[in-house]
Amino acid sequence: MNNKDIPVTVMATEVVPRQKTSLYPEPFATQMNGREKRVLGDFFGLVNFGVNLTKLLPNAKSALRHAHSTQDEFVYILHGYPVLITDSGETQLSPGMCAGFKAGTGNAHHLLNRTNEDVSYLEIGDRSSGDSVIYPDDDLKASLVEKEWQFLHKDGSPY
Questions:
Q1: Cis omega (within 30 of 0) on the bond before 17?
Q2: pTM metric for this prediction
Q3: Could you give the dihedral angle defined by the CA atoms of residues 31, 125, 11 and 19, in that order, rounded to the nearest 10 degrees?
Q4: Cα distance between residue 7 and residue 142, in whole Å
Q5: What is the pLDDT of residues 141-159, one digit of tens each?
Q6: How many structural domains are present in the chain?
Q7: Residues of the domain holding 36
Q8: CATH number, domain containing residue 57
């Protein structure tokens, strides 16, 4: 698709959800069941930052609890009442609330939907090259190498 073929506007809910539930290796990928991402930034051909419209079904989570080395992240809650888990503890979120995660702080985070209703939110992050991710609760680490995520055990062995 060339630039002339990319629309300027779209109904976000009409962007086809990403087919692959997660980029994580097993046994972590199946933990993302119940999460649906509409990759809006990619739809528009954005290269400097990503934007996703994400839906969490009841009992689903946004990601493994993680922290980026070079990527800033921001979430804005559109619908529902997820719980934000960080190194500081738990915070109940509601529509209209937002949270930001400065790169390099090491403050690992994720969202959990402990309700019986869907949660939807926007997630925005830059696409810093050389990014790495720590997962303090899991035997996993990740590095962004030439725009591809590489996942390893914490001891450096591959999955």
A1: no
A2: 0.93
A3: -30
A4: 33
A5: 999 888 889 999 999 999 9
A6: 1
A7: 22-132
A8: 2.60.120.10
